[in-house]
Amino acid sequence: MTSVGCVDDACIPDTASEDECEGLSLSKISSQIGSSLVKACIEKYGTKAIKKAFCAYKNVKSIKPSYLPTKELFKIIVYIENEFQKAIGQGITYHSRKRSGLSCPIEYDPASNLTFIHLAPYKESQLGAGVHKRVTVSIKYDKKSSELVANNSFKRESEDQEINTLKTLHGDAGLLKTLAFTKHTKTSGKTIFGFVTKLYNLGPLGRSIKNQRKFTSKEIVTIARDLLIGLKNIHNKGFCHRDLHNHNIVLDENIDPKTKKKKISAVFIDFGRAEQATQIGDNFPQASKKLNPPEFFTKERKYEDHKLSDIYALGVNLFHLMYLKLPPWNYDLLNSFDKLHMLKMHERIEVGKKLADRIDQYITPRMKKLSKMSKKKPFEEFKFIVLKMLSSNPKERPHASKLIDKVECILKKM
């Protein structure tokens, strides 16, 4: 049994029972939080409420980012457990910093029954920002099992496309895990939409590549397997992702409870450009021109299979992951790609032909060499699959559903 009133962190359980919370010594709480703050909170909310808040604080403290001051975290928890609970009972689900007097906004999502502490006011919480939204770290607050999450907040009032797509794809493997969809109205009357997701601890694939992180062959194939499953799930519901650059792929690393070894996983994020394949029309499917296959430089590209552009783009990313550099044709035609929007139709078609030729010059001899090998090592088999994904001929580029079983078989041999 834990000693009551022990000041050391190890002596106060992270998940203390109600009786253990009641038995906490106020002097010990004050020694960690500060006597003046504890005294002010007791005067406002009472001793019992403060002891309960301190028990919750002990749990959240274990995942608290260093930039969030200890006293501020305690104040936020006391406020959530008292003032904010009353507001939720009145149907109010968002308190701004101005309204609460705290350093962070707090938000409750009735659908998921989750409460979030948004750390956006701290610049260290910034994960990324784009044209349409900003992504920052938040705390999913729970008295017993809090965790850090990613809060995606849109800059404009109406961003129905990505939210509707996420709701359609919600829960599918290989895609980011969405915890809640949020909405609140600012004092100015502006409505802010957003969603909260799992926070992936290794961050974007592009960051790992930039930092020259070395992945094992098995990790690379595992990442590919996860992403192919993600693409299959996107495509099965009629969507194309259409923005598959390496910062829209995120990685996570955890300890496998069965093997006790590190396990890597990957998912796709950012569905702002995702669209039903039948509705894309005469547009480049991928936002980055360098990720578009040759057939989309033609005049009649609206009749092409847009899902195969996702396969090609993923192939480019897997090549980049294996060799820590882009395929050579991405460098050769870089200037043409950058100026593509300025090219006339016949010039654009010429770029597509050159692109197909460069791809064939690189891929064809390597595929022939791998094909002639009587006994290929598992990773050689995987390289062959990536080359197929990069084929200049869309008819030779398999869909995700056709590739998953092959990649699974390769993983079993590794």
Structure write-up:
The protein contains 15 helices and 13 strands. The protein has helices at residues 18-22, 26-33, 35-45, 47-61, 70-89, 97-100, 160-169, 205-210, 217-236, 307-323, 328-332, 334-338, 345-372, 378-389, 400-413; strands at 94-95, 106-109, 114-118, 126-129, 133-141, 147-154, 178-185, 191-198, 203-204, 239-240, 249-255, 262-268, 275-276. Strands 1, 2, 3, 4, 5, 6, 7 and 8 form an eight-stranded antiparallel beta sheet that branches.
What is the number of beta strands? 13
Strand content: 15-25%
**Low-confidence blocks of residues:** 1-14
The radius of gyration over CA amounts to 26 Å
Give the biggest beta sheet: 8 strands, antiparallel
Measured as a percent range, the helix fraction is: 40-55%
Class based on secondary structure composition and strand pairing: alpha+beta
Summary, kept brief:
The protein contains 15 helices and 13 strands. The protein has helices at residues 18-22, 26-33, 35-45, 47-61, 70-89, 97-100, 160-169, 205-210, 217-236, 307-323, 328-332, 334-338, 345-372, 378-389, 400-413; strands spanning 94-95, 106-109, 114-118, 126-129, 133-141, 147-154, 178-185, 191-198, 203-204, 239-240, 249-255, 262-268, 275-276.
SSE map:
Layout lengths: L17 H5 L3 H8 L1 H11 L1 H15 L8 H20 L4 E2 L1 H4 L5 E4 L4 E5 L7 E4 L3 E9 L5 E8 L5 H10 L8 E8 L5 E8 L4 E2 H6 L6 H20 L2 E2 L8 E7 L6 E7 L6 E2 L30 H17 L4 H5 L1 H5 L6 H28 L5 H12 L10 H14 L1
Antiparallel strand pairs: 1-2, 2-3, 3-5, 4-5, 5-6, 6-8, 7-8, 9-11, 10-13, 11-12
